[in-house]
């Protein structure tokens, strides 16, 4: 009699796949930590490989290129921020008044964009990711404007409120004009309150 | 006796310099016409040289590169629009009510940016030009907001109103979301009126 054969279980990946996943996590973790400490431009692939305890070839095998790894870092931090918006504590997450959520959204989005401006450049132009991230923030702001009973062309009012949070606008203000993020955030909140007051 | 020598007069350039200036004008004129007719991506340096009645080497001698010529085209159209803002007919130029001027500013700036989005890409990243153009529009909007007695952080309110007119925002709306420029302009006017009403 031949022994019974089993279909492979999804929960039981081959050792090669487990190693690959472990390496991927180690590299991504090292990249997140080093980018946070040194900024994306200063971090080398050698540093990341050494910190993750893998060979540089493994880094390239798992992420394709430096830009690919920076995209993964960006996607990870974006996903964490989105999770905080959807289900994190108030005022950013649910449970606060819509205006308080909107103000918290603007402040944290601004910090996120400024912190990641270099990373966005290092990741290169990945239109698909940009569109997915943009769809999320546009849906969220429209939802809050409707909760605030704003009348008019709500989708386009949302776009107009999101425009000052674009990297190109924020970087001009911070890096060229030398404005503080506190002043920029206060002005954004003022615009939001004027638009909502209608 | 030797004949008297004269210093060259500024009004009497050497024939080479007159030719150079004439060629430059002919090339720029041809480039403006062809970019307007065909869009900047479709226009070749051969087309421009042939239309200007000069050799291709002359085009490169006068403008350095394709990007250099596209920058000159962009500078020329930007200067024409700025002249219309400063001293053209109302409502864009002086003589209209500040709110009418602001609305006309937004509409023409939007058209300008959308028409030139490809040209801005063809000209490459020329930060100095961008900053000069940005300074002009920022000064103009601040001036009109002050004329409208807007209270608050006027420079940053101006920035917030200019942000939806950035190429990256307008192209997303027109090219990705398929929105009409009429709807975008109407929403911008709505935001302006809400911000001014305070």
Sum up the structure in keywords.
homodimer, 198 residues, mainly alpha, Arc Repressor Mutant, subunit A, Tetracycline Repressor, domain 2, 2 domains, 10 helices, elongated
Question: What do these coordinates show?
Answer:
Two copies of one chain form a homodimer. The first copy, chain A, is mostly helical and 198 residues long. Helices cover 73% and strands 0% of the residues of chain A. The first copy, chain A, contains ten helices and no strands. The first copy, chain A, has helices at residues 15-38, 45-52, 56-63, 66-87, 98-115, 117-123, 127-147, 154-162, 167-176, 181-197. In chain A, helix 7 packs across helix 8 (154-162). The model of chain A has no long low-confidence stretch (mean pLDDT 89). Chain A binds chain B through residues 131, 134, 152-153, 156-157, 159-160, 163-164, 166, 168-169, 172-173, 176, 179, 183-184, 186-188, 190-191, 194-195, 197-198, and chain B through 131, 134, 152-153, 156-157, 159-160, 163-164, 166, 168-169, 172-173, 176, 179, 183-184, 186-188, 190-191, 194-195, 197-198.
């Amino acid at each position: 009699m031949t022994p019974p054969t089993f279909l492979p279980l999804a929960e039981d990946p081959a050792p090669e796949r487990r190693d690959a996943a472990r390496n991927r996590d180690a590299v991504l973790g090292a990249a997140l930590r080093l980018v946070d400490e040194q900024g994306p431009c200063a971090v080398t692939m050698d540093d990341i490989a050494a910190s993750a305890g893998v060979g540089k070839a493994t880094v390239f095998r798992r992420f394709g290129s430096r830009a690919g790894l920076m995209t993964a870092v960006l996607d990870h931090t974006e996903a964490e921020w989105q999770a905080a918006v959807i289900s994190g504590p108030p005022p950013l997450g649910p449970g606060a008044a819509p205006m308080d959520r909107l103000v918290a959204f603007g402040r944290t989005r601004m910090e996120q964009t400024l912190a990641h401006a270099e990373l966005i450049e290092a990741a290169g132009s990945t239109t698909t990711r940009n569109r997915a991230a943009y769809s999320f923030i546009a849906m969220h702001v429209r939802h809050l404007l409707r909760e605030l009973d704003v009348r008019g062309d709500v989708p386009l009012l949302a776009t107009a409120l999101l425009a000052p949070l674009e990297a190109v606008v924020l970087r001009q203000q911070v890096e060229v004009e030398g404005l503080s993020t506190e002043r920029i955030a206060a002005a954004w909140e003022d615009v939001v309150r004027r638009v909502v007051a209608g």
